[in-house]
Structure formats: C-alpha cells, structure tokens
Amino acid sequence: QVQLVESGGGLVQPGGSLRLSCEASGSITGTLAMGWYRQVPGKEREKVAAISRHGNLYYADFAKGRFTISRDNVKRTLYLQMDRLDAEDTAMYYCASLDGAGYYSDPKYWGQGTQVTVSS
Q1: For residue 5, how many other CB atoms are within 10 A of its CB?
Q2: Alpha carbon 28 to chain centroid, angstroms
Q3: What pLDDT tens digit does each residue of the chain (120 aa) get?
C-alpha cells in the first residue's frame, strides 16, 4: 500500500506561483513514475505532468513553459512548481503513483488532493 499526501495548495493571484509537494510513504520505491493531475467539478480528471523512473518528463500542453515537475527520491517527495498561474488553473490537484516506470503509465495510487485557487 502507498500513501501520498499533497500540500502547498492555496489562493494565489493571477500571474503568481505555487509549489505543490507530495510526500510518499509505504510500499513505494523510486523506480516508479509519478504524476500530477487536476480536476474541476463537473469535468474529468486530467493529467498535468509526469516524471518517469529515469527522469523523462511529460507535460500537458497547458502546462508547458509554466509548470515544472521534479522528484527527490531520497525524500520520497514529488514537486510541481507552477508559475504564471491563471484562473483556468483553479482546480483540485492530485498526486499519483503510476503503475510502471514510464510517464505514460496509468495512475495506481492517489493522494487526497490539494486545492489551488487562482483569483484576484
């Protein structure tokens, strides 16, 4: 079993930045891919970014150039640096441990989510 706990969400003004963190515990190793997803009410959860076992990166088109995913395997922590945020980035953000080494793998375990609200 894997436990994932996100933090770092909050209220930010348009153009601002936030850094999300996801601490992993339990039966997890640094050999699996991990990712960030987001969801707004009434819409499907969408993939934001992912990082493979070997550090290969995936970004959704809306995240390219603004968001940066990274991981610290020693700390068992996944990060998402989000810059130049706008109102459309408002969502619940979820961390996921993927079911494989590649960033294309399906999510297997989820965190509880952290809310990001972009508003003036």
Answers
A1: 14
A2: 17
A3: 789 999 999 999 999 999 999 999 876 655 689 999 999 999 999 999 999 988 999 999 999 999 999 999 888 899 999 999 999 999 999 999 999 889 999 999 999 999 999 999
